[in-house]
Specification:
Elongation Factor Tu (Ef-tu), domain 3, six-stranded antiparallel beta barrel, Rossmann fold, 3 domains, SH3 type barrels, 10 helices, alpha+beta, six-stranded mixed β-sheet
């Protein structure tokens, strides 16, 4: 890794306010955290991570900023983000370190993403990035190079350190202390879905100051502290999409056109495509075919290079298999349990019976030797292989894994 460091400067004085604000409670909690108050903050250059660093500084912590250099060129997490992160550190008077992780990002995210799309699945890059590129590497680098044992990020999620046997409503009794991962208090910004793959070791050393705030509060606090990123627009797409302009443009850089057939579920050929990587389960728009009723992608066959389409009624399933599961807030269950399942980031949780099944070689190789069957109370539209299925018990994230297949 190549390291770039910005020297520490004096901390600017924030604007004082006599109004009651949500940030007061956050500051009080940050001040009450036991142990040494020294932390490395992952800075993307956006308002969320900027405020995270600012609140920790205001709470009296010794703060260092770390920005991961993931890609070269245009993109909110690349050149522009690096500049904004450095500017915030300069404003706050804290050291800023840029860690070159482009090689890791290329291997763990880009190559994995391309491979997944080539195989006809729709990968979930953000969860994988958090596990392989961000949290563990930042913590390791901070400990090795700065002697820091804690990190903080601007994610909207919470962590509760507790004795799980005292947790009411938990679907399974546990025998040891665990660090529970909880939804953020703002239901419109909760990002726990993308954090399901974090280990207990990581959760023990992570701080999420914004988990107690709403996004509107974040903007207000950033304005109160006169942060340079207070009014910076929020990123709307994956970093790869912003970097390349579209997911299609990104994939076209890595996969050559491969003409194949678009087939009705009945077997009738109704069109052609230039690559299965441009389709996902449940897709309606952009199919390039005209039919007497709306059609949706219900299956992608990598072996035959075919895209199978059908009316919407055929795009819903009631069961699915989930693999490479990471159990977060509970021990792996040994018998069926009832859970709430979130099948995509912006979807509402739905009830399902979760039944543990034998692990596959893929699960074991990934050091996640857990699989399960989910049987939903009602049919679910567009259950997509490659995406994450995340299990909850109310606000507590129990665990999650990757959807492998679905069935009626």
């Amino acid at each position: 890794m190549t390291i770039f460091t910005t020297n520490k400067k004096e901390l600017s004085t924030p604007t004082n306010s006599k109004e009651t604000r949500q940030g007061d409670e956050v500051l009080a909690k940050l001040k009450s955290i036991p142990g040494e108050h020294a932390v490395a903050v992952g800075l993307s250059g956006g308002v969320d991570s900027s405020l995270t660093a600012a609140l920790l500084v205001e709470a009296g912590w010794d703060v260092k900023g770390i920005t991961l250099w993931l890609m070269s060129g245009k993109g909110s997490c690349c050149s522009e983000g690096l500049v904004d992160a450095a500017s915030i550190c300069n404003q706050l008077g804290i050291d800023h370190h840029i860690v070159d992780t482009r090689e890791t990002f290329q291997k763990e995210i880009i190559e994995s993403l391309v491979s997944g799309y080539k195989e006809g699945i729709t990968p979930s890059p953000c969860s994988r990035c958090n596990r392989f590129v961000k949290f563990s590497p930042i913590l390791h680098w901070a400990k090795t190079n700065l002697g820091l044992n804690r990190i903080a990020t601007g994610h909207y999620a919470r962590i509760r350190h507790c004795d799980p046997q005292k947790e009411k409503g938990s679907p399974q009794k546990k025998s040891k202390k665990r660090h529970l991962l909880l939804r953020g208090l703002d239901p419109n910004k909760d990002q726990s879905y993308f954090l399901y793959d974090l280990s207990q070791e990581i959760l023990a050393k992570v701080i999420f100051p914004l988990g107690e705030l709403k996004k509107s509060d974040t903007r207000k606090e950033a304005s109160r502290l006169e942060l340079k990123t207070a009014k910076k627009p929020e990123s709307q797409d994956l970093c790869l999409v912003e970097h390349h302009g579209s997911m299609k443009a990104f994939l076209d850089n890595y996969l050559p056109p491969r003409e194949g057939k678009i087939i009705l579920e009945t077997g009738k050929e109704i069109g052609v495509h230039d690559g299965i990587e441009h389709f996902t389960i449940g897709q309606r728009k952009g199919l390039g075919v005209a039919w007497e009723e709306p059609l949706y992608v219900i299956e992608i066959q990598a072996s035959t290079n075919r895209v199978i389409v059908a009316p919407r009624s055929k795009a819903s399933k009631q069961k699915c298999t989930v693999g490479v599961i990471n159990w977060v807030s509970i021990e792996p269950p040994t018998k069926p349990i009832k859970v709430e399942v979130q099948l995509r980031y912006r979807s509402n949780p739905v009830i399902a019976n979760l039944t543990p099944i034998n692990a596959s070689e893929k699960d074991i190789k990934a050091n996640r030797p857990f699989r399960c069957k989910l049987d939903f109370d009602s049919e679910q539209f567009s259950i997509t292989p490659g995406q994450a299925a995340v299990f909850y018990d109310g606000e507590i994230l129990l665990g999650g894994g990757i959807i492998e297949s679905s069935e009626n």
